[in-house]
Write a structure and sequence with these properties.
single chain; Double-stranded beta-helix; 15 strands; 5 helices; alpha+beta
């Protein structure tokens, strides 16, 4: 099968790793007269549609549910559910990490194109993050090669995570292969901080991803709540140990960078709050 006009003067491949390529719309001409002006200035500011194109050759990939736009070739689709117990486990993982519980697996030979997004797409080599892999912020996972295992990791300090209005769990990727991450900040602007038995403290959720080998907690700025109030600072995300952190230079804004394959914030919050409440009760026994 031959695919024509996938790329042209307006759409070009900008990045490629493993089976994944990023198709970027330098100019989006499929607009109406009512939003053409906004689209023009968006393109000038690098706010553009981007799509993931995967080329399978007797290989497979796992993607976020609902992310497929179209595919061609001899490709079989299955779920990653191995039984009732596994399904229930995935439901729990999906609820606490704001990811889709069941992720379809595409296997065979062909071309798979994901839905376009205005978010920035990062092709992450999971093997470069070591044997413990990389932990990513909620909602960033989009797709990965077959050699990548998708799991969850918990905060070390549960009660402070709840106090800081943070989630208790994050998605953990480990193994060997490429994963596609959706980011509100361009990869070129991310600051990489390497820690060697040291600590990093961040005021806010500016960390995009970090080595799972790091101890991640949420702590008060000072030893007491009164001291934190006086210092006009609240709680800090703290990363300790040896590894690296990718951090946004500014607090990311996602209100305008909505993705077609992202769980609605309201629905995600309802599920997350329910599991956070249960986690808080359990966590209080160990903190």
């Amino acid at each position: 099968m031959q695919i024509n006009n996938l790329t042209n003067g307006e759409r070009k491949f900008t990045k490629q790793k493993g089976i994944f390529s990023i198709l970027e719309y330098e100019r989006d001409l499929s607009v109406s007269p009512y939003n053409a002006t906004a689209q023009y200035f968006m393109s000038k500011m690098n706010v553009r549609r981007r799509q993931v194109v995967a080329n399978l050759e007797n290989s497979s990939l796992t993607m976020q549910a609902g992310a497929l736009q179209w595919m061609t070739g001899n490709v079989e689709v299955k779920t990653d559910v191995k039984g009732v117990g596994d399904f229930l486990g995935k439901m729990v993982k999906g609820a606490v990490t704001k990811e889709s519980a069941v992720k379809p697996v595409y296997t065979g030979t062909g071309v798979i194109v994901l839905e376009p997004t205005y978010k920035y797409l990062i092709l992450c080599d999971v093997g470069e993050w070591g044997s413990n892999g990389v932990t990513i912020e909620d909602g960033m996972f989009l797709a990965c090669e077959n050699g990548v295992d998708i799991g969850i990791t918990a905060r070390k300090n549960v009660s402070s995570a709840l106090l800081g209005n943070e989630g208790l769990f994050n998605v953990n990727l480990k193994g060997n292969g490429i994963a596609v991450l959706e980011s509100n900040v361009p990869e070129e602007e991310l600051i990489e901080i390497e820690l060697n038995n040291e600590e990093l403290k961040i005021d806010g959720k500016q960390a995009v991803c970090w080595s799972t080998s790091l101890d991640f907690t949420v702590e008060k700025t000072t030893k007491t709540l009164i001291g934190s109030a006086v210092s006009n600072e609240g709680l800090l995300n703290v990363y300790r140990g040896t590894g690296k952190v990718l951090m946004s230079p500014v607090a990311p804004t996602d209100s305008l960078l909505s993705s077609t394959n992202t769980v609605s914030p309201k629905a995600a919050d309802v599920k997350s709050n329910a599991f956070n409440a249960v986690g808080g009760i359990i966590g209080g026994m160990f903190d």
